[in-house]
Amino acid sequence: xxxxxxxxxTLAVAPRERLTRLPRPIAACVWLAGILALATTFVxxxxxxxxxxxxxxxxxxxxxxxxxxxxxxxxxxTPSLSxxxxxxxxxxxxSPTVGGGRxxxxxxxxxxxxxxxxxxxxxxxxxxxxxxxxxxxAPPLRYDLWLEGADQGWHLHITxxxxxxxxxxxxxxxxxxxxxxxxxxxLVPENATSGRLTIxxxxxxxxxxxxxxxxxxxxxxxxxxxxxxxxxxxNEDTSALSRARLLAQRSETAIVxxxxxxxSLSFQRTFGRAERVEGxxxxxxxxxxxxxxxxxxxxxxxxxxxxxESPVPRLRVERPLRFETTTLALGNxxxxxxxxxxxxxxxxxxxWKLVFSHEPDVWGSQHDPKTDAAEVDLTHSEGxxxxxxxxxxxxxxxxxxxxxxxxxxxxxxxxxFVLAPR
Amino acid sequence: MKPRASVxxxxxxxxxxxxxxxxxxAQSRVTYYEHVAPILQNHCMSCHQPAGKNLGSLVxxxxxxxxxxxxxxxxxxxxxxxxxxxxxxxxDGPRGVFSNERGLTAKEIETLAAWADAGAPGGDxxxxxxxxxxxxxERDSGGYSLGTxxxxxxxxxxxxxxxxxxxxxxxxxxxxPEDLLPQDVFIRAWEFRAGTYKAGQDTVHHMCGGVxxxxxxxxxxxxxxxxxxxxxxxxxxxxxxxxxQLPPDFGMELKKGSTITFNMHYYKQAGPNxxxxxxxxxxxxxxxxPVKYKVHSKSIGTTGFEIPPHKINYRIGAAETxxxxxxxxxxxxxxxxxxxxxxxxxxYPDGRKEVLxxxxxxxxxxxxxxxxxxxxxxxxxxxxxxxxxYDNSADRGVKRxxxxxxxxxxxxxxxxxxxxxxxxxxxLEPGQSPPxxxxx
Lengths: 422, 440
What we know:
Structural class of chain A: mainly beta
Distance between the termini of chain B: 27 Å
Radius of gyration of chain B: 23 Å
Number of domains of chain B: 2
Radius of gyration of chain A: 22 Å
Largest sheet of chain B: 6 strands, mixed
Oligomer: heterodimer
Structural class of chain B: alpha+beta
Helix content of chain A: under 10%
Order of helices and strands of chain A: EEHEEEHEEEEEEEEEHEEHEEEEEEEEE
Strand content of chain A: 35-45%
Number of domains of chain A: 2
Number of helices of chain B: 8
């Protein structure tokens, strides 16, 4: 098997590579067997018994993570907040009582300053490592979130660990297109350093703006003091440093399902005109005034959208995901480990498809169709802000399901998925 | 590595047959002074010098500058050149465009092998070639291979890497005193001297140098923004690197009051008496005439990757589109223990593609800068794709001493990985003509 390069030639050949990718004939057999037996298809190598442990301990909570500007916010809640519970009915009535029906819906962690509506959080979170050391994972600051009745629907009341009130955020309610029997919360990217906290519950939906102020521009926490050194051991845990470097280049959304299995989707950060992109001095990321957006709608049918100013978005899954009849498997890189895929938008007739490839870390100009693993249909709509930079989101829509969305300018492409058996 | 002037398979086979048939006579004729010394002078001695010389003091482990030094290594020399491991050159294309391209002809390899088989005889000393002028220059200039620099800037003070240290990084700044640099100049060449050589250890993983403009304040917050290795305009050296020399009319600006930044990465085994002092320095050579083209360096790279455990042939890419007509001067692909291949490809505005550099057998131990004989003109709108392959397998882990069971991400230690495609370049201003000698 060969690895194709940007010029269409091969970079290197390694026979053992065959062990790590599903040979096409076998893939075809699996495909056929799936259609006949299960009406589903599996792509990538089948995962044997899991050799990896989920990074997050299973605590029964659903988590929606959003990392923008080098910082991370995590919304965590129980999936069992039922709309039909008598204690919740006052909040979900057509005319909730002001201040009534107070319910703790979960907690919010942040690794840095975070603004929810008019409430500022996270002051003092994170912080730099001491000079001469590698950064260690700084404990995030945690806040409790309470939902209360209000004139326009709900208030989000935020308290600290001592239960002291930090403020309220208005959450105007709107009728939801479909009823949500359990509370579903999510953090959704909206711009380079801002997004929304959304809540769907009963017949209503609501959202508050969240902002990540003072974004980090590059890999903070390294070599902070001139003329002093950082001494590292060969067996030192540098994961926090790697995480900082990842978030210096990429933003990320993630879901952690109740059993601790994490699905993450990372994509190129967008920078302001005066800022620089890590590792690429000419690029500011995927802004709508850049060359890639200008070419977006001219993408020929049957071709993927090339991103010359960004790596391909990367989806990492610790549990197989099923998109309609297509299942995205674990172990597509190496058997027994999480799945890792590159995502490509593809023009398909009048619509769009999402292509999952086995190369999650190539640049957006380096698509190799031989590494494509699967395609799923995307729902395309327009209506977002015209100046919205590229973002890719994976958000929960239930305790066992979610939505993968790509946002860029007014465009939004999405596909729903459910957790598939291991 | 392939022999530079590789001949066809048939020709190689034929020469092999001829060689077998004439081994005895060849052995009897091949001597150090008449046959071997010229080859070593031309292809080996620039690195194989006594400790402390050349390559920023990142020297080869044994000197081969005399018969006495070379004779004990005759069989090892034969083995290495026949295997293609020496002299180190890892690119298979394009051929003939790099000024520092290394390699031996089939005839030269045959000569070295025959010399070893014959017992490494010295022969008639009167047949020895004249001594290498470059080496003479180096010995007379404190170890600088380009001669005595016009300006030498050192780290602000010596730094001690302790016995317990394994993987140490630091950024040091030295403001150039006005008496040393009373006026703005252009630099035509610079040479790093890592300042340390400890026998048997790769004590300096890399050294990068940069020029900060006058008024630079040693602001921790600014430094924390992480210029690191990738943002320094003078590039870096590691084992296998050579001094940077620019063509006539090319130069790098150095203003009076500038600050020189040393980004140092020390890497050794911890243990008793393994510690050492280090004070790196950079020698600058000033341009004597006007400079038309200002040279910079940067990297095309990425930091957000994740190499899965046990994965082989894992491709990581980065790209950049040129905003101006640009002259490329050199390429330096930089990665760590798991990297196995690197490639730079230009995609021109008309869609045509050209491989600028292909390194199918990347070796982290040899950080080669591929220097173009003539600058390469790339028009505005050209996209440069850099791709590297990585091998996180158990087999390679044994050879390179890393743990294949971990997901590998970007990080500063040698056990972490990097994906950086360095280039040195000149951006042409509108209306500025390229030099007449650039590649097309």
